[in-house]
Amino acid sequence: MQIPVVRNILEANARIAADLKDFFAKKGILVLNLMSSPGAGKTTVLERTLSALAPEMRMAVVEGDLQTDNDARRVAATGAQAVQINTEGGCHLTSSQVQEAIKSLDLEDLDILFIENVGNLVCPAEFDVGEDFKITLLSVAEGDDKPEKYPLMFHISAALLLNKVDLLPYVDFDLERASRHARVLNECIEVFPVSARSGEGLDAWYDWLRRRLADKRAAV
């Protein structure tokens, strides 16, 4: 008796992600996949970033959530394009969802596309969505042991934003320990201690975005 084999969902996702990556490369669009646990501050960091860089860059956001369009409406209020994906319980975005979502965006002359993934420190790390870089956000309220507990997320990320540093006097979080363990997993990861609330440290993050965009445009 022959048993039918279902092709690996990761393989199918990877094929579409590769097509997306090629599409974005031809247009010179820098694509960033933002990942974190719920409440780490992805949307607030995005709001600050979109507002600060609006005079010099054209940006858009694909928002991923289980339900509601709350975050898409927040980022759209900055003037950036936004489209919402509701996964209806899915714990991550897929490349096919992103491929469908960008049909609602005007991609001509776009500089950066941010993909705000579903809040989860496990599933999003396993699915490419056509991005150039994965970015992880970690709130100081979550604990400095997260790189050790969720190693894949930090191993594959190009940058780590340690958010809510304005809360450091009130929480038990060691910035050096978190940074050290992230770099054990990925020696090339760039670490940015930031506060999306106060703006502390965000200039270094903005400069990183400028450099990555310049690199992307130089490769076109």
Description:
With 220 residues, this protein is an alpha/beta fold. The chain has one domain: Rossmann fold, CATH 3.40.50.300. Strands 3-2-4-1-5-6-7 form a seven-stranded parallel β-sheet, with helices on both faces. The longest helix has 19 residues. It is globular. The mean pLDDT is 95.
Short overview:
This protein has 220 residues and is an alpha/beta fold.
Number of extended strands: 7
How would you spell out the order of helices and strands?
HEHEHEHEEHHEHEH
Main pleated sheet: 7 strands, parallel
Task: Give the overall shape, derived from the CA principal axes.
Answer: globular
What layout of secondary structure does this protein have?
Blueprint: H1 9-27, E1 30-35, H2 42-53, E2 59-65, H3 70-76, E3 81-86, H4 95-101, E4 112-116, E5 133-139, H5 146-149, H6 151-155, E6 159-163, H7 175-185, E7 190-193, H8 202-219
Parallel strand pairs: 1-4, 1-5, 2-3, 2-4, 5-6, 6-7
